[in-house]
Structure formats: C-alpha cells, structure tokens
C-alpha cells in the first residue's frame, strides 16, 4: 500500500503520546571515530539523564548558579552526556567525530520543534536568504530556491511538500530557548556559539557533501537522518574523490553527532521519516593562524620602526636568483636569502604585541556574542528591570539609589572587557548586543585613566559581589558615578533590587 506523504508539521501533530514520556530511561551507546576506523565503547547500563522535556527546568536551575562559567560547563555536559567534558576536550575536540546514540526520543525535547518552526513562520518576519534558505540536492546538483521577500507559511510548506529542505539560519533571533542555550554555551567555548535548524522531508537530501570551518554539534530533534562522514582528501574535491565513509550512522531523535571542522559530511533522510535537527557551532576563525593574522602585521610595523635590520634594503640582484622562475636553481645566494628571512622571522617575535592582538580577537568575540538572558532575579536587580514608569501623569521611580554600601558585580563573567588602543582605554560590553548577528555595532565607551583599576577590580571579582565603596577610585563621588554609569548600561547588577 502506498504511504500517503505527510508534512513534518503534520507528523509532529500525530506523534503518539508514549513517545514523550518524561521518565523514559536512556540506553546510551557512544561511538568514537578515528580516521582509521571506529572504536566501539562497551554497552553501558541504562542511565538516568536529563530529558529534553525538562530543558526549561534545567535552564531555570542553571540560572540560579552564582557563576556563569559554571553554568556554561553544566549545560555543555548536558549537551554531550554521558561523555565527561574533560575527556571530550582532551581526546575528541578538534580531533575526531563522535556519535552518541541514546535511544531516548525526548532527550533534547524543548530545545526546538517543527511546531515552533511553523509558529515562527506565522508570527515573525522571516526573510528568504536572511533567515531561511530553501534547498534541494538531486542528481548530484544542489540548488537554492529562495524567492524574494518574506517567507510565508503557505509558500514554505509548499516547497517542503515538493521535496525541498528548509534551513533556518539564525533560530536564536526567534526562539528564546535557543537564544538562552547559545548565550550560555558561548562562555564554554570562548567563541561565538551559533546555530542553524534543518528540516528535511522524507527520502530527500538538501545539501551536497561538503566540509565546514566550524566545530559542529548535530542535535537530532525529530525523526532521523542518515549521516556519512569522510576524511577530506583535498580542498577542491568532487563526490567521486571522497572514498568510503569513516562513519555511517542513522541519527535518531535524542542522538548527538559531533564532528570537527574539515570533515566532509553528507546527510540524507530515509524514506520513512522526516528530520529536524539543529547544528550548534563554534570556533569559527578561532585558530592560531587567525590570531597571527592580527599579530604579524602589528609586529612588523613595530619592528620596522624600532629595528634598523628590518629597514635595510633587499639585495640589489635578488630578483635574479629568487622567485618561482629561479626556484630550481642551486645558488648559494638563495640559501643566504632564506637564512636571512628565517632570522628576521625569529626576531619578529620580540616585537609582537601579543596582548594587543588577543584583545583584537576578544573584541571580535564580544561583537559576535549574544546578549545574556536574564533570570528573574537578575532582571529585578538590573537596569532592565528598574521600576521607572509613567503613572498618573507623573514619572515614578526614575532615580537610581546607589550608595557605597550597594553590592554589585558584572552581569556575566565575559560580558565586559577592558582594551587599550595605545591612546585610550575602552570598556567593550555585550549586554546591548542584538540577537541578530552583528545587527548592532560593538558597544564601548572610554574609561577614564583613574577608573581602570576599579574596572579591573570589578571584572576580576566575579562571581563575587563587591560594595561600591570598595572600588579603588579616588573619591566616594567617583565610586558612585562609575557604578551608576555601569548600571545604566546594563553591565552590572546589584545583589538586591535598588
């Protein structure tokens, strides 16, 4: 009998209730993959774990933790359970793929769903090419079918029914839960945590085999998907070049697939089920090479100003023995030339402004960051929850009453950073960032020289609250003025509502 095709949203609505038991146990099997083969872990006993249906409760519990770094660590541990985070970063991170098979459809429930996807299409201004891509991959050809303008449900679901895959590019802009999860995880990675959602019809494929420049955590939310991973043969490859997969698995709801940047991956839906997964990504452009791209030009500029050896002229005749056309020549002058280059490169490290280059990377990170999601207590004790209002023809509670006894701290461990450009010190902060990537410019303001010690004291005191009176400023007025400025910009909050 021919199976009647149903949309993912229709399938979502008809899922039997027993698939969503919040008390279901997980039988967890972990496959760690090396390029040379697969290592199978022994079957583990059934273990109790945090079901995704309880994700909201988990996030509520995490918001009560005093330290945002601890919060990030615990949420990451939930993401990769049962693999200990310490061993993951030691043995797997950036090295090899890993597949966590949980046999628990509900593990990630609450993170995102087809129902939420449909709601976003109906209620939000989702734009093709900006927020949503419609793609297909048939007969070895990948196509994008984005019309101009807003993605309306009728057209989007018609594309889906025609066999197209849907990719939501920035679900954190629409989903508060995804925003919360990513804003926490970015402190675990020290790098932007981003996400894409992929909804694929049964029996189809949306993308050609490819590799990415990110660390990818594929979180299967609904249905299932067949994944194959390959070692990348060359930067420019075609499907015939990639050989046999090093990993060939069906990832079902509740499972996790991690693979480092550079691994070719290909996913396709099986005929009997749609697939909804969210890929959480991080560490894009966060390599030593990316840091050196900032560091080396600055080091050269300093070296040429301070060291005459870098300003000496090249040999008069160097074009006669250097360059590609002379690369096969056996000429002692070539050896001396390379030796001089090596000497200068080694000497260049003496002029490398490493801290300044790191601060440039840090500013990029702060610009990439999502703003923090505030807990009810944080909201009540920060400028966002201040009681100022219009009432009975008058402005009420607009004054901020900060005294030397007021206890304050920065809102998150990584939400603010002092950086110097050599002429002035600025404080960069994330609390006014947008949920849409780079929609706003990076926020900063100049910090007076006499206030830099106080800012360092505040940043380094986290997660502890400190009294405004303990700030190392010259006068009580300056202590209070600095605290009021930071409070108004949402960078600090108080231990108790003001």
Automatic annotation (TrEMBL):
Keywords: Chromatin regulator, Dioxygenase, Iron, Metal-binding, Nucleus, Oxidoreductase, Repressor, Transcription, Transcription regulation. SUPFAM superfamilies: Clavaminate synthase-like (SSF51197). Residues 164-299 form the JmjC domain. InterPro entries: JmjC_dom, NO66-like, WHD_RIOX1. Binds 1 Fe(2+) ion per subunit. It catalyses: L-histidyl-[protein] + 2-oxoglutarate + O2 = (3S)-3-hydroxy-L-histidyl-[protein] + succinate + CO2; N(6)-methyl-L-lysyl-[protein] + 2-oxoglutarate + O2 = L-lysyl-[protein] + formaldehyde + succinate + CO2; N(6),N(6)-dimethyl-L-lysyl(36)-[histone H3] + 2 2-oxoglutarate + 2 O2 = L-lysyl(36)-[histone H3] + 2 formaldehyde + 2 succinate + 2 CO2. It is found in: Nucleus. Its cofactor is Fe(2+). Its EC number is 1.14.11.-. It is an enzyme of class 1 (oxidoreductase). The keyword Repressor applies. GO terms for cellular component: nucleolus. GO terms for molecular function: histone H3K36me/H3K36me2 demethylase activity; histone H3K4 demethylase activity; iron ion binding; peptidyl-histidine dioxygenase activity. The keyword Repressor applies. Transmembrane segments: none annotated. PANTHER family: MINA53 MYC INDUCED NUCLEAR ANTIGEN, RIBOSOMAL OXYGENASE 1. Oxygenase that can act as both a histone lysine demethylase and a ribosomal histidine hydroxylase. Belongs to the ROX family. NO66 subfamily. This is Bifunctional lysine-specific demethylase and histidyl-hydroxylase.
């Amino acid at each position: 009998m021919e199976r009647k095709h149903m949309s993912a949203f229709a399938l979502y609505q008809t899922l039997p209730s027993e698939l969503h038991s919040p008390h279901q146990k997980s039988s967890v099997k972990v496959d760690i993959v090396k390029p040379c083969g697969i290592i199978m872990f022994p079957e583990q006993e059934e273990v109790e774990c945090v079901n995704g249906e309880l994700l909201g409760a988990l996030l509520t519990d995490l918001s009560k933790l005093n330290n945002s770094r601890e919060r990030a660590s615990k949420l990451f541990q939930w993401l990769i359970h049962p693999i200990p985070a310490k061993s993951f970063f030691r043995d797997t991170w950036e090295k090899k793929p890993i597949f966590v098979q949980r046999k628990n459809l509900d593990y990630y429930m609450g993170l995102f769903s087809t129902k939420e996807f449909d709601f976003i299409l109906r209620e939000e201004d989702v734009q093709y090419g900006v927020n949503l891509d419609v793609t297909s991959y048939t007969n070895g050809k990948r196509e994008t079918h984005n019309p101009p303008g807003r993605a309306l449900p009728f057209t989007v679901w018609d594309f889906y029914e025609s066999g197209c895959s849907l990719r939501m590019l920035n679900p954190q802009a629409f989903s508060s839960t995804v925003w919360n999860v990513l804003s926490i995880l970015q402190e675990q990675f020290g790098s932007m945590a981003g996400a894409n959602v992929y909804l694929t019809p049964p029996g189809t494929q949306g993308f050609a085999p490819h590799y990415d420049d990110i660390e990818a955590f594929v979180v299967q939310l609904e249905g299932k998907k067949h994944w194959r991973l390959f070692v990348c043969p060359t930067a420019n490859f075609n499907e015939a070049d990639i050989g046999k997969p090093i990993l060939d698995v069906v990832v079902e709801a509740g499972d996790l697939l991690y693979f480092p940047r550079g691994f070719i991956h290909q996913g396709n839906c099986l005929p009997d089920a749609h697939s909804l997964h969210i890929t959480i990504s991080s560490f894009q452009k966060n390599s030593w090479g990316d840091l050196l791209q900032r560091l080396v030009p600055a080091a050269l500029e300093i070296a040429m100003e301070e060291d005459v050896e870098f300003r000496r002229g090249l040999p008069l005749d160097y074009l006669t023995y250097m360059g590609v056309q002379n690369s096969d020549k056996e000429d002692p002058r070539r050896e001396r030339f390379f030796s001089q280059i090596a000497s200068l490169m080694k000497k260049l490290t003496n002029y490398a402004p490493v801290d300044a280059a790191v601060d440039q990377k840090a500013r990029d990170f702060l610009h990439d960051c999502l703003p923090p999601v505030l807990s009810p207590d944080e909201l009540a004790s920060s400028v966002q929850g201040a009681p100022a209002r219009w009432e009975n023809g008058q402005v009420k509670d607009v004054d901020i009453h900060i005294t030397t006894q007021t206890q304050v701290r920065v809102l998150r461990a990584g939400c603010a950073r002092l950086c110097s450009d050599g002429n002035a010190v600025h404080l960069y902060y994330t609390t006014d960032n947008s949920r849409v990537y780079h929609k706003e410019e990076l926020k900063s303001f100049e910090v007076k020289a006499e206030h830099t010690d106080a800012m360092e004291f505040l940043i380094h005191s986290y997660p502890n609250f400190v009294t405004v009176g303990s700030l190392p400023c010259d006068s009580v007025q300056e202590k209070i003025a600095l605290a009021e400025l930071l409070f108004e910009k949402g960078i600090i909050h108080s231990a108790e509502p003001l």
